[in-house]
Amino acid sequence: MPDPDGTGPWNFTAAITAGGQSRRFGSDKALALLAGRALLDHVAAALEQCPRRLLVAPPGRYTLPGWTSVADTRPGEGPLAGLEAALGAAPPGWVALSGVDLPGLTPAYWTTLAGARTLEALSVQVLDPSGRPQPLGALYHTSLLPRVSALLDAGERRLRLAAPPEWIVTLAPPASGDLRNINTPADLAALQDPAG
Questions:
Q1: Where along the chain is Mg(2+) bound (predicted)?
Q2: 3-state SS string over the chain?
Q3: 15 is in an annotated binding site
Q4: Within a domain: residue 132?
Q5: Is 106 annotated for ligand binding?
Q6: Among 24, 80, 148, 180, which one is most buried in terms of CB atoms within 10 A?
Q7: Does residue 3 fall inside a structural domain?
């Protein structure tokens, strides 16, 4: 069922998590340049069609026109806490969650994920080459908020536990998006290299 809410493929809230420390990168990777634009701008451009757009980051760190800043509810607790903040700030429905370090995602990628939603699903995730669902660059339903909060309250930080496996729709990597994660300057260099 490609459109369970009946309002079109872009009937979800965009959320970018940008609260990390960028330790492995060595500087603020959100502002690192790829093809002359900051990684944050690349990620935001892929989600511009969303009617609601949330940037989960420390207050005042970044400015994105048309995006609403949302404070991380549990600073330093990682992407699961970023998801909690996004689910709490979004209206009921679906949230597209991306890290600031996924500049290869495209509008077509998100359209593909939106089309894979079902009435029973609570998350849509792409499989990596080893067949493992990837929890970033994924869709989550806001009804997961109590589960996510309970996981965090129990000391859990793994984003991949946000949705029970039986409620996750998985799909092969769409040709329209590159899920490579930028964690180090070498990762960025490989993405800039056409042979990388």
A1: 101
A2: CCCCCCCCCCCEEEEEECCCCCCCCCCCHHHCEECCEEHHHHHHHHCCCCCEEEEECCCCCCCCCCCEEECCCCCCCCHHHHHHHHHHHCCCCEEEEEECCCCCCCHHHHHHHHHCCCCCCCEEEEECCCCCEEEEEEEEEHHHHHHHHHHHHCCCCCHHHCCCHHHEEEECCCCCCCCCCCCCHHHHHHHHCCCC
A3: no
A4: yes
A5: no
A6: 148
A7: no
128 annotated as ligand-binding: no
In a domain, 93, yes or no: yes
Residue 31 lies in a domain: yes
Q: Is 72 annotated as a binding residue?
A: yes
pLDDT tens for the 196 residues of the chain, in order: 334 444 467 899 999 998 655 555 555 666 666 677 878 888 999 999 999 999 998 888 888 889 999 988 888 888 999 999 999 999 999 999 998 888 889 999 999 999 999 999 999 999 988 889 999 999 999 999 999 999 999 999 999 999 999 999 999 988 776 766 666 555 555 566 554 4
CATH code for the domain in which residue 140 is found: 3.90.550.10
> Is 7 annotated as ligand-binding?
no
Domain assignment of residue 124, given as a range: 12-192
Total domains, the chain = 1
